[in-house]
Design brief:
Layout (H helix, E strand, L loop, with lengths): L12 H9 L34 H14 L1
Length: 70
């Protein structure tokens, strides 16, 4: 560990979000500080589909981009 990370008192969620978005963790941690973890009893929630309506033009554009990337 390079140096101790000290968290300030945040006035609101926006201030906290700004802090985390602009924080460079490389100033505080080195790769050797991290350890691999596993969650053997973690259950993933089932995926559910939801019907949505999008314009046909948008659907075609998404399909075309997918074909180009494949």
């Amino acid at each position: 560990m390079k140096k101790q990370l000290k968290l300030p008192k945040f006035k609101n969620e926006d201030e906290e979000a700004d802090f985390w978005n602009n924080l460079d963790l490389t100033e505080y941690f080195e790769p050797s500080d991290f350890v691999r973890v596993s969650f053997p009893r973690l259950k993933l929630t089932p995926k559910k589909s939801a019907p949505i309506s999008i314009p046909v033009r948008a659907k075609k554009a998404v399909k075309e981009r997918a074909i180009k990337k494949a």
